[in-house]
Protein backbone atom coordinates (compact mmCIF):
# COMPACT_ATOMS: atom_id res chain seq x y z
CA UNK A 1 0.00 0.00 0.00
CA UNK A 2 1.45 3.40 -0.92
CA UNK A 3 2.31 5.79 1.89
CA UNK A 4 -0.39 8.36 2.64
CA UNK A 5 0.08 11.71 0.97
CA UNK A 6 1.23 14.29 3.57
CA UNK A 7 -1.07 17.23 4.23
CA UNK A 8 0.17 20.47 2.66
CA UNK A 9 -0.47 22.11 6.04
CA UNK A 10 1.48 19.54 8.07
CA UNK A 11 3.73 21.15 10.71
CA UNK A 12 6.86 22.60 9.15
CA UNK A 13 9.79 24.61 10.34
CA UNK A 14 9.39 28.36 10.56
CA UNK A 15 9.99 30.23 7.28
CA UNK A 16 13.41 31.51 6.35
CA UNK A 17 14.14 35.21 6.44
CA UNK A 18 13.54 36.98 3.14
CA UNK A 19 16.45 38.61 1.36
CA UNK A 20 17.09 42.27 2.18
CA UNK A 21 16.02 45.01 -0.24
CA UNK A 22 17.70 48.08 1.24
CA UNK A 23 19.01 49.70 4.41
CA UNK A 24 15.97 49.11 6.62
CA UNK A 25 15.32 45.50 5.66
CA UNK A 26 19.07 44.86 5.92
CA UNK A 27 19.04 46.27 9.45
CA UNK A 28 16.15 43.98 10.39
CA UNK A 29 17.51 40.78 8.85
CA UNK A 30 20.98 41.30 10.31
CA UNK A 31 19.56 42.08 13.75
CA UNK A 32 17.40 38.97 13.68
CA UNK A 33 20.28 36.77 12.56
CA UNK A 34 22.81 38.18 15.03
CA UNK A 35 20.54 38.70 18.02
CA UNK A 36 21.70 42.31 18.24
CA UNK A 37 20.04 45.68 17.77
CA UNK A 38 19.14 46.93 14.28
CA UNK A 39 21.71 49.37 12.88
CA UNK A 40 20.51 52.03 10.46
CA UNK A 41 21.10 55.71 9.75
CA UNK A 42 19.14 58.38 11.61
CA UNK A 43 17.56 59.55 8.36
CA UNK A 44 16.82 56.08 6.99
CA UNK A 45 13.15 55.96 7.98
CA UNK A 46 12.17 59.59 7.23
CA UNK A 47 13.78 59.36 3.79
CA UNK A 48 12.42 55.90 2.95
CA UNK A 49 9.73 55.50 0.31
CA UNK A 50 6.67 54.48 2.38
CA UNK A 51 5.42 52.39 -0.55
CA UNK A 52 8.86 51.03 -1.45
CA UNK A 53 10.32 47.54 -1.30
CA UNK A 54 12.71 48.26 1.57
CA UNK A 55 10.30 49.73 4.13
CA UNK A 56 7.45 47.38 3.30
CA UNK A 57 9.67 44.29 3.58
CA UNK A 58 11.19 45.52 6.85
CA UNK A 59 7.70 46.01 8.29
CA UNK A 60 6.58 42.60 7.04
CA UNK A 61 9.54 40.89 8.72
CA UNK A 62 8.91 42.63 12.04
CA UNK A 63 5.20 41.83 11.93
CA UNK A 64 5.89 38.17 11.21
CA UNK A 65 7.57 37.90 14.61
CA UNK A 66 4.01 38.04 16.00
CA UNK A 67 2.84 35.13 13.81
CA UNK A 68 5.20 32.22 13.04
CA UNK A 69 8.60 33.86 13.50
CA UNK A 70 11.60 32.76 11.44
CA UNK A 71 13.95 29.84 11.27
CA UNK A 72 16.91 30.41 13.58
CA UNK A 73 15.41 33.54 15.19
CA UNK A 74 14.73 33.59 18.93
CA UNK A 75 11.00 33.85 19.66
CA UNK A 76 11.79 36.43 22.33
CA UNK A 77 12.70 38.96 19.62
CA UNK A 78 8.95 39.52 19.17
CA UNK A 79 9.08 42.08 22.01
CA UNK A 80 12.62 43.35 21.54
CA UNK A 81 12.49 47.10 22.39
CA UNK A 82 14.98 48.11 19.69
CA UNK A 83 13.02 46.27 16.99
CA UNK A 84 9.75 47.70 18.30
CA UNK A 85 11.22 51.21 18.20
CA UNK A 86 12.18 50.78 14.55
CA UNK A 87 8.80 49.26 13.77
CA UNK A 88 7.01 52.19 15.32
CA UNK A 89 9.02 54.67 13.22
CA UNK A 90 8.16 52.80 10.04
CA UNK A 91 4.51 52.42 11.02
CA UNK A 92 4.26 56.17 11.48
CA UNK A 93 5.79 56.69 8.03
CA UNK A 94 3.33 54.20 6.52
CA UNK A 95 0.28 55.67 8.29
CA UNK A 96 1.23 59.22 7.35
CA UNK A 97 1.50 58.15 3.71
CA UNK A 98 -1.89 56.45 3.84
CA UNK A 99 -3.55 59.54 5.28
CA UNK A 100 -1.81 61.78 2.74
CA UNK A 101 -3.20 59.61 -0.07
CA UNK A 102 -6.72 59.80 1.39
CA UNK A 103 -7.32 63.50 2.12
CA UNK A 104 -10.96 63.20 1.10
CA UNK A 105 -11.56 59.81 2.70
CA UNK A 106 -15.12 59.09 3.84
CA UNK A 107 -15.96 60.04 7.41
CA UNK A 108 -19.04 57.87 7.77
CA UNK A 109 -19.70 54.15 7.40
CA UNK A 110 -22.44 54.81 4.85
CA UNK A 111 -20.07 56.82 2.63
CA UNK A 112 -17.36 54.19 2.91
CA UNK A 113 -19.47 51.10 2.25
CA UNK A 114 -22.00 52.36 -0.31
CA UNK A 115 -19.61 52.12 -3.32
CA UNK A 116 -18.60 48.60 -2.28
CA UNK A 117 -22.17 47.34 -2.51
CA UNK A 118 -22.54 48.24 -6.20
CA UNK A 119 -20.80 46.47 -9.09
CA UNK A 120 -18.69 48.99 -11.07
CA UNK A 121 -20.03 50.06 -14.45
CA UNK A 122 -16.54 49.69 -15.92
CA UNK A 123 -14.75 46.76 -14.25
CA UNK A 124 -11.68 47.17 -16.45
CA UNK A 125 -9.27 47.56 -13.53
CA UNK A 126 -10.70 44.67 -11.53
CA UNK A 127 -8.34 41.73 -11.08
CA UNK A 128 -11.12 39.21 -10.55
CA UNK A 129 -12.94 40.35 -13.71
CA UNK A 130 -9.72 40.08 -15.69
CA UNK A 131 -8.85 36.64 -14.35
CA UNK A 132 -12.38 35.33 -14.93
CA UNK A 133 -12.60 36.49 -18.54
CA UNK A 134 -9.07 36.35 -19.92
CA UNK A 135 -6.64 35.33 -17.22
CA UNK A 136 -4.19 32.53 -17.92
CA UNK A 137 -3.05 29.72 -15.64
CA UNK A 138 0.37 31.30 -15.07
CA UNK A 139 -1.35 34.46 -13.88
CA UNK A 140 -3.52 32.48 -11.47
CA UNK A 141 -0.38 30.82 -10.11
CA UNK A 142 1.27 34.19 -9.57
CA UNK A 143 -1.86 35.57 -7.93
CA UNK A 144 -2.07 32.58 -5.57
CA UNK A 145 1.62 32.73 -4.67
CA UNK A 146 1.28 36.39 -3.71
CA UNK A 147 -1.98 36.02 -1.84
CA UNK A 148 -0.51 33.12 0.14
CA UNK A 149 1.29 35.62 2.37
CA UNK A 150 -2.13 36.40 3.81
CA UNK A 151 -4.32 33.40 3.04
CA UNK A 152 -2.03 30.93 4.84
CA UNK A 153 -2.80 32.92 8.00
CA UNK A 154 -6.30 33.96 6.91
CA UNK A 155 -8.28 35.72 9.66
CA UNK A 156 -5.35 35.71 12.10
CA UNK A 157 -4.75 39.51 12.02
CA UNK A 158 -8.43 40.16 12.68
CA UNK A 159 -8.54 38.00 15.82
CA UNK A 160 -6.58 40.65 17.71
CA UNK A 161 -9.62 42.93 17.68
CA UNK A 162 -11.90 40.51 19.56
CA UNK A 163 -10.66 41.33 23.11
CA UNK A 164 -11.02 45.02 22.23
CA UNK A 165 -14.72 44.72 21.45
CA UNK A 166 -17.71 44.21 23.72
CA UNK A 167 -21.26 42.89 23.51
CA UNK A 168 -22.81 42.51 20.08
CA UNK A 169 -19.64 43.49 18.22
CA UNK A 170 -17.53 40.92 20.09
CA UNK A 171 -20.09 38.12 19.68
CA UNK A 172 -20.57 38.80 15.96
CA UNK A 173 -16.83 39.02 15.29
CA UNK A 174 -16.22 35.76 17.11
CA UNK A 175 -18.98 34.07 15.10
CA UNK A 176 -17.42 35.09 11.78
CA UNK A 177 -13.92 34.11 12.90
CA UNK A 178 -15.24 30.72 14.03
CA UNK A 179 -16.33 30.08 10.45
CA UNK A 180 -12.99 31.32 9.07
CA UNK A 181 -11.22 28.79 11.28
CA UNK A 182 -13.29 25.88 10.04
CA UNK A 183 -16.13 25.88 12.59
CA UNK A 184 -14.22 23.39 14.71
CA UNK A 185 -12.92 21.23 11.83
CA UNK A 186 -9.23 21.43 11.02
CA UNK A 187 -9.79 20.31 7.43
CA UNK A 188 -12.17 23.26 6.89
CA UNK A 189 -9.85 26.00 8.17
CA UNK A 190 -9.60 28.51 5.34
CA UNK A 191 -5.81 28.54 5.51
CA UNK A 192 -5.88 24.76 4.96
CA UNK A 193 -8.21 25.17 1.99
CA UNK A 194 -5.83 27.71 0.47
CA UNK A 195 -2.91 25.33 0.96
CA UNK A 196 -4.92 22.76 -1.00
CA UNK A 197 -5.47 25.36 -3.73
CA UNK A 198 -1.71 25.93 -3.91
CA UNK A 199 -1.14 22.20 -4.14
CA UNK A 200 -3.48 22.04 -7.16
CA UNK A 201 -1.54 24.87 -8.81
CA UNK A 202 1.82 23.21 -8.27
CA UNK A 203 2.90 25.78 -5.67
CA UNK A 204 4.71 25.21 -2.39
CA UNK A 205 2.17 25.69 0.44
CA UNK A 206 4.83 26.29 3.08
CA UNK A 207 4.03 29.33 5.21
CA UNK A 208 5.84 32.45 3.99
CA UNK A 209 7.46 30.60 1.08
CA UNK A 210 6.88 33.37 -1.47
CA UNK A 211 7.98 36.42 0.53
CA UNK A 212 11.00 36.91 -1.74
CA UNK A 213 8.68 36.88 -4.76
CA UNK A 214 6.28 39.49 -3.38
CA UNK A 215 6.59 43.11 -4.54
CA UNK A 216 5.93 46.07 -2.25
CA UNK A 217 2.26 46.57 -3.30
CA UNK A 218 1.43 43.06 -2.08
CA UNK A 219 3.42 43.40 1.14
CA UNK A 220 1.57 46.64 1.88
CA UNK A 221 -1.82 44.89 1.76
CA UNK A 222 -0.61 42.30 4.29
CA UNK A 223 1.13 44.87 6.47
CA UNK A 224 -2.03 46.97 6.69
CA UNK A 225 -3.86 44.17 8.52
CA UNK A 226 -1.04 43.68 10.99
CA UNK A 227 -0.69 47.43 11.56
CA UNK A 228 -4.38 47.76 12.37
CA UNK A 229 -4.53 44.53 14.35
CA UNK A 230 -1.57 45.14 16.64
CA UNK A 231 -2.73 48.55 17.83
CA UNK A 232 -5.75 48.92 20.06
CA UNK A 233 -5.96 52.58 19.01
CA UNK A 234 -6.64 51.36 15.45
CA UNK A 235 -9.39 48.88 16.37
CA UNK A 236 -11.94 50.89 14.40
CA UNK A 237 -9.72 50.83 11.32
CA UNK A 238 -9.31 47.06 11.63
CA UNK A 239 -13.09 46.61 11.76
CA UNK A 240 -13.37 48.83 8.67
CA UNK A 241 -10.78 46.71 6.90
CA UNK A 242 -12.54 43.50 7.85
CA UNK A 243 -15.92 44.82 6.73
CA UNK A 244 -14.46 45.96 3.39
CA UNK A 245 -12.97 42.50 2.79
CA UNK A 246 -16.20 40.70 3.64
CA UNK A 247 -18.40 43.03 1.56
CA UNK A 248 -16.27 42.59 -1.56
CA UNK A 249 -15.31 38.95 -1.08
CA UNK A 250 -18.40 37.10 -2.27
CA UNK A 251 -18.70 38.54 -5.82
CA UNK A 252 -14.92 38.52 -6.26
CA UNK A 253 -14.69 34.91 -5.09
CA UNK A 254 -17.39 33.89 -7.56
CA UNK A 255 -15.35 35.33 -10.42
CA UNK A 256 -12.14 33.70 -9.19
CA UNK A 257 -13.86 30.31 -8.87
CA UNK A 258 -14.96 30.68 -12.49
CA UNK A 259 -11.39 31.60 -13.47
CA UNK A 260 -10.00 28.51 -11.76
CA UNK A 261 -12.60 26.32 -13.46
CA UNK A 262 -12.04 27.87 -16.91
CA UNK A 263 -8.26 27.42 -16.66
CA UNK A 264 -8.49 23.85 -15.31
CA UNK A 265 -6.67 24.77 -12.11
CA UNK A 266 -8.13 21.84 -10.16
CA UNK A 267 -10.99 20.99 -7.85
CA UNK A 268 -9.31 22.27 -4.67
CA UNK A 269 -8.33 25.52 -6.38
CA UNK A 270 -11.91 26.12 -7.48
CA UNK A 271 -13.31 25.00 -4.12
CA UNK A 272 -11.43 27.59 -2.08
CA UNK A 273 -13.18 30.45 -3.83
CA UNK A 274 -16.52 28.65 -4.20
CA UNK A 275 -16.50 28.16 -0.42
CA UNK A 276 -16.17 31.92 0.05
CA UNK A 277 -19.10 32.82 -2.21
CA UNK A 278 -21.82 31.67 0.18
CA UNK A 279 -19.88 31.99 3.44
CA UNK A 280 -18.85 35.60 2.85
CA UNK A 281 -22.30 36.61 1.64
CA UNK A 282 -23.53 35.62 5.10
CA UNK A 283 -20.49 37.11 6.82
CA UNK A 284 -21.10 40.44 5.11
CA UNK A 285 -24.46 40.82 6.85
CA UNK A 286 -23.09 39.73 10.22
CA UNK A 287 -20.14 42.11 9.94
CA UNK A 288 -22.12 45.11 8.77
CA UNK A 289 -24.97 44.79 11.27
CA UNK A 290 -23.32 42.92 14.13
CA UNK A 291 -19.68 43.96 14.22
CA UNK A 292 -19.83 47.45 12.69
CA UNK A 293 -23.29 48.22 14.06
CA UNK A 294 -22.35 46.92 17.48
CA UNK A 295 -19.11 48.89 17.60
CA UNK A 296 -20.86 52.10 16.54
CA UNK A 297 -23.45 51.59 19.25
CA UNK A 298 -20.71 51.15 21.85
CA UNK A 299 -18.17 53.67 20.52
CA UNK A 300 -19.74 56.07 18.01
CA UNK A 301 -16.58 58.20 18.00
CA UNK A 302 -14.83 55.42 16.03
CA UNK A 303 -16.98 55.86 12.90
CA UNK A 304 -14.35 57.90 11.04
CA UNK A 305 -11.72 55.25 11.90
CA UNK A 306 -13.95 52.49 10.50
CA UNK A 307 -14.42 54.49 7.31
CA UNK A 308 -10.66 55.14 7.10
CA UNK A 309 -9.87 51.43 7.47
CA UNK A 310 -12.19 50.63 4.57
CA UNK A 311 -10.80 53.41 2.38
CA UNK A 312 -7.19 52.39 3.10
CA UNK A 313 -8.02 48.80 2.12
CA UNK A 314 -9.50 49.90 -1.19
CA UNK A 315 -6.50 52.15 -1.86
CA UNK A 316 -3.95 49.39 -1.35
CA UNK A 317 -5.95 46.77 -3.24
CA UNK A 318 -6.21 49.19 -6.18
CA UNK A 319 -2.45 49.81 -6.06
CA UNK A 320 -1.82 46.06 -6.11
CA UNK A 321 -4.27 45.52 -8.97
CA UNK A 322 -2.55 48.26 -10.95
CA UNK A 323 0.85 46.66 -10.41
CA UNK A 324 -0.35 43.21 -11.49
CA UNK A 325 -2.30 44.41 -14.52
CA UNK A 326 0.54 46.63 -15.74
CA UNK A 327 2.95 43.68 -15.72
CA UNK A 328 0.47 41.14 -17.11
CA UNK A 329 -0.70 43.44 -19.89
CA UNK A 330 2.93 43.56 -21.05
CA UNK A 331 3.07 39.77 -20.87
CA UNK A 332 5.55 39.98 -17.98
CA UNK A 333 5.60 38.40 -14.57
CA UNK A 334 4.35 40.60 -11.73
CA UNK A 335 6.67 38.86 -9.27
CA UNK A 336 10.13 39.95 -8.18
CA UNK A 337 11.48 36.54 -9.25
CA UNK A 338 9.93 33.78 -11.40
CA UNK A 339 8.04 30.90 -9.83
CA UNK A 340 9.80 28.25 -11.88
What does this structure look like?
The longest helix has 32 residues, at 267-298. Mean pLDDT is 93; it is low at 1-11. With 340 residues, the chain is an all-alpha fold. The protein has helices at 23-34, 44-47, 53-64, 81-101, 109-113, 127-133, 137-151, 156-159, 167-180, 190-200, 216-229, 235-262, 267-298, 303-329. Helix 12 runs antiparallel to helix 13.
As a percent range, the share of helical residues equals 55-70%
3D shape: globular
Sheet with most strands: none
From the structure provided, what is the oligomeric state, counting identical versus distinct chains? single chain
Low-confidence stretches: 1-11
* Strand percentage: under 5%
Count of beta strands:
0
Order of helices and strands: HHHHHHHHHHHHHH
Gyration radius, in Å: 20 Å
Amino- and carboxy-terminal Cα gap: 32 Å
- Determine the number of helices (DSSP H or I, runs of at least 4 residues): 14
State the secondary-structure class: mainly alpha
Mean pLDDT over all positions: 93
